[in-house]
Amino acid sequence: MTAIQTRPRPAPRSAAPNRIWDAGPLTKVVLAFALVLSAFPIYYMFIMATRTNDEALDTPPPLLPGGTLGENVERLLAADDAYFATGLINSAIVATTVTVSVVLISTLAGFAFAKLKFRGSKIMLGLILVTMMVPLQQMGIVPLYEMMVTLGWTGQIQAVILPFLVNGFGVFMMTQYTTQAVPDELVEAARVDGASTMRIYVSVVLPAVRPGMAVLALLTFMQNWNEFMWPSIVLNPENPVVQTSIAALNQAHGTDYVMLFTGTAASVLPLFIVFIAFGRQIVGGLMEGAVKA
């Protein structure tokens, strides 16, 4: 009898290394250098917020925290020509309101465009894409300002909120994310079980698109928190947002470097808090997209 030759079985896929390659020493050095270059200006800004003006002009400059942070914050809030506390409160109200509105409307519209069939959906989505290509804020400043004057809203924060409650980018982003994150079979199964459209949106769509909502919320909050041009046109100096407060602070106290550093640090701190709050969802969304790809 002839011996039966058998081929050796290939190693299972699980035995293969999980990573293609490990980062070498040069890669780690370059990444560390890039991290230092990116983080050092922010670190130096917070360091200067704890120093005096004399210490800020020292050579070499101080690189460790000082002990005058409380005094600098008191001087910042007491500056009558900047209204910094009012600017912080107004920016928090504007950014939070706009973020909630944009995320809610964009998620609803994304669900409708991605999973519901209705006449004219492609045309409507195309018109939304057109709004992303045209700089409406710059081109529409004059008619938008006339509208605010007609409504009697100049100098009030609703004039900064109303024009940004809907965002074409948010609708497009959530449409694409819903298309990929929510299978059609899952929607059809829920509909067969008797779920209404709103029930499908709440119970099926929202849990699946939560990472995308977190990313959109972070981007929207940052954009509206950092908005300067439109608030500087429609608001008055007594009722500013934080960016116009910093501009007024620069005009009135241009040589008080420590106060400028303190104001800038105070304006950046809420962005760090928002990023920390949504960071887990953002990373989860990126990892989910990488696994699907």
Automatic annotation (TrEMBL):
Record-linked Gene3D superfamilies: MetI-like
Keyword vocabulary terms for this entry: Cell membrane, Membrane, Transmembrane, Transmembrane helix, Transport
Membrane topology reported for the UniProt record: Multi-pass membrane protein
Keyword Membrane part of the UniProt annotation: yes
Organism (species): Streptosporangium fragile
PANTHER family in UniProt: ABC TRANSPORTER PERMEASE PROTEIN MG189-RELATED (PTHR43744:SF12), ABC TRANSPORTER PERMEASE PROTEIN MG189-RELATED-RELATED (PTHR43744)
Primary localization: membrane
Domain (ABC transmembrane type-1) ranges: 88-278
Locations listed in the record: Cell membrane
Stored InterPro entries: MetI-like, MetI-like_sf
Keyword Chaperone: no
Family affiliation: Belongs to the binding-protein-dependent transport system permease family.
Transmembrane segments annotated in the record for this chain: 29-47, 82-111, 123-145, 157-179, 200-222, 257-278
Protein name: Carbohydrate ABC transporter permease
